[in-house]
Amino acid sequence: MLRGEKLNRKQKVGFLNHLVAMHWLTKRNYYVFHNISGLGPCDLIALNDRGNIIKIDVKSESIRKTGTHAGHKIRRMTTKLQKKMGIKLLMVTKEGKCYFYK
Q1: Number of domain units in the chain
Q2: What 3-state DSSP class applies to 58?
Q3: What's the rounded Cα separation, in Å, for the pair 23 and 20?
Q4: Which pLDDT value is given to residue 32?
């Protein structure tokens, strides 16, 4: 993104949902580490007091607007690399609720 460029609606939603995810994890007693480069297979790493580590890719839940599957959630999948690395998808709904995608 170039200096002075404004975020579009999709970027704003993604940014805000990223913050929602960090807040949700923090409320569940995780220390949250953010990928500041914006590059790579995961967005966050969460660590709790027992040493449990969760590698997370944050996704905004989306609903199909048109077609035969209109009204249904868009199915998200991890990449081969994410699967190999044990990265989990953390979905954030329009209402701000979070859940790990199965």
Answers
A1: 1
A2: strand
A3: 5
A4: 98
Question: What is the CATH classification number for the domain harbouring 81?
Answer: 3.40.1350.10
Q: Taking the chain (102 residues) in consecutive chunks of 10 residues, what is each chunk's mean pLDDT?
A: 77 93 98 93 97 96 79 84 97 95 84
Q: What does the alpha-carbon distance between residue 84 and residue 49 come to, in Å, rounded to a whole number?
A: 25
Containing domain of residue 26, as a range? 9-100
| 1 lies in some domain | no
In a domain, 94, yes or no: yes
DSSP 85: H
> Residue 57, Cβ neighbours under 10 Å: how many?
21
pTM equals 0.85
